[in-house]
Structures are given as C-alpha cells and as structure tokens.
DNA sequence: CCTTCAGGTTAACGACCGCTAACCTCCCTG
DNA sequence: CAGGGAGGTTAGCGGTCGTTAACCTGAAGG
C-alpha cells in the first residue's frame, strides 16, 4: 500500500474535521457552520461536496468499518497457513494502529451508529459483524476450548480495551506511542488468555 | 445496604428514563417531550422536578461517578489490611455489577460528559480521577513492578473492557449474567497480569 | 474571447426544541 | 371548609439549525 503524498482533497479535509468535531461534541452537537469553518468555507458550501450532514456521518462510519474489515482480511491472507497465534497478534496490532492513529474515528465508531439511516446502519453493522466473526474464528483456533458465545463476548470486550485510547490522556501524557501500543497488545493477549483458560 | 422496597419517586422515574433515552439517542437527540412521555407526563411537566434538561444529565453523571467512587471506597475499607489481591478482585466485582446492572448509565458516563456545564464537568472529572487513582494504588500493590503511568493506562483500558457490556448484545443472547460477570472478571485479571509482567 | 462549470457566497425559510406563562385540579392541613 | 401548594395541563415565544435558493467568480477549454 503506497503512502499518500498528494494533498488531501477538499472532501477529505471536510471528513477529517467533521470526524474530529463529531467525536468532540457529538453528531447533534455540531452545526454545519462549524464544520464549514473548520475547513475555511462557510456552512452551506459543504453541500457542494455532500448531500447533507447525515451523509458525512454515514461515509465516515462506513469507511471506518470497511477499513477495519479490509485490513483484517489482508492480514489474514498474508499470514495464510501460518500459526494462528501470529495471526491473532497481527489482528491486534492492526486494531491498535487504528485506535492510536484515528482516535476520533474510533470514538465515532461506537457512539453515533444510531444516528444513521436504516440502510446505512445495516451496512455498518454487517461490516462490523464480519470483522468480529473474523476475530472469533482466529481466537477459537488459538484457544480451542472456548465456546463460541464466550469467544464473541471476549472479542467485544477486547475491542473495548483497545478502543480505550481516547481516554488515555492527550498525546504527551502518554509514555510514548510505541510503549502504549505494546502495553495494549500485552493486555489484549492477557485478557484473551484468561478467557481461553476455562 | 438495605434494598429499596418502596416505590420510586417521580424524580427517580424521570432520571431512569432520561438515562435510557440519552444512552439510546444521545443527549441532543432526545427532546424533553419524549422524556416526559416516557414517564406518562408531558414535556414541560418535567420542570416541576428539574431546573432543565441539563440538570437531569448533570445529576445522572454526578450520581454515577459518586456511586462508583463511594462503592469503591467502601470495598476498600471493608477489606482493610487484607491482601491487595482480594481488594483488586473486589473492585473489579463492583465495577462489573455496575456495568451489568446499569448499562445506560455506563454508556452515558463516557459519552456525554462534554455536554455538562463547566462546574459540573469539573466535579465529575474530579470524582472519576479519584476513582482511577484508587484503582491505580491497589494495582501497584498487587504488581509493584508496574510504573505509575503504565498503571493508569492499564486501569483506563480495563475500564474500557468492563464497560463493553452495552456491546455484548441484549440480555438473552448473553450466556447468562453470572457467566458473563465471571468471564469479564477473568479477562480483567488477565489483562492486569499481562500489564504487570514487564 | 466567450462559455461553462466547479466551488464558493449570503439570505432566508421552515422545522424543531427548550423553556416560560398562565391556568387547572386535586389533596392535605389548620 | 377554606386555602394553598404540589404537580399537572396547553399555548406559545425565541433561538437554533439543516437545507435550499439565488447569485457570484475565477480558471480551464474550444
């Protein structure tokens, strides 16, 4: 995957700022004028790029879910045939990268889902479910003793653990990105191990 | 603590329904008319019991934080002098009880804090900080090797794990409350153990 | 050089929502 | 048995917000 070097499009600027604002003050707490101001244009100018405020949220949430799922599938494919243990580590690593690099999106991801139109919400839920099931399969390979409902619960709980990054204080009070990532990784493995030991 | 047997007051009804609605659709997503309807009165009737919509949210959040802190202090006092290990277990148990019994409140707790007036938000933050510090102290007794910043991060992350209950599916798809509580408890201990093993 | 169109602008409409005003109706109490 | 307060009601005001309408402008293309 080539790293982007070209300038972000106006659409992307808007999405990024909207994500930040939605995460800070909630979907209903942010006005379109604010979003516009954040990218240097004013309120209604946004409608040249999006059908409405809802559309921005929808694109954000679908994008997040899709990105997570795609990344996980890729990691699974890359490690095809390898030890399930390593695959689980790779999944954890990917999720942590995302949680540390895109904190606003992680926040939105489980906070504003209910504000979506039915069709969009169904789509997001479906992507999320696939992502979870993917983890569940790998987890049950590593810990064959764990029953499926328990495995699903364990996966959701570890997501809760990994998604706690927004609560870990602003960057700077953290012990450094690498150390935080490592700590989260160890804790996730520890939690899974405890769930697997019946 | 004696279990309440008398009927809930109107104020308590309102708070409970408001908590549920706020958790479902967000603070700004719920109108006062809806809250009123949920308790059988209509919109402005709420103002006989609360100064405004903000006041309901404030009372809910301050109440949650206070309850968590008070409960933790009580458990700490009860186990005074006992093994730190057992105290940690008691803290975890208390938090899980809360997360399982008052899911809407847990949801609100880290979702709508920014909607509070400055003074209320400061109060809630102060209560939360005390609660965290209490856990950090106990955790560092159990795992003396862990540095304080890492311990704080670990505590926040385990809160994320325990507070994942709203994502565990509606009661019924769960393997039963007792089993869920036990699983969460084991995972929390596993995560802490992994954080403590440097 | 004229045209076109992408991407802005401001004005304003309509809906919604928090809150207040004004009024009503029990029930408790002196 | 008056009267007063607790706890409702409906009507409506004022502000906010998403969205649309109408207009403007600069740059690219024939």
TrEMBL record, chains A, B:
Q: Which InterPro entries match?
A: Homeodomain-like_sf (IPR009057), HTH-type_TetR-like_transc_reg (IPR050109), HTH_TetR (IPR001647), KstR2_TetR_C (IPR041490), Tet_transcr_reg_TetR-rel_C_sf (IPR036271)
**Keyword hit for Membrane:** no
Q: Where is the HTH tetR-type domain?
A: 8-68
Start-end of DNA-binding region: 31-50
A Pfam family the protein falls into: TetR_C_24
- Would the keyword Repressor be found if you checked this record's keyword annotation? no
What keyword terms does UniProt attach to this protein?
DNA-binding
Q: What is this protein called?
A: TetR/AcrR family transcriptional regulator
- Biological source species: Streptomyces longisporus
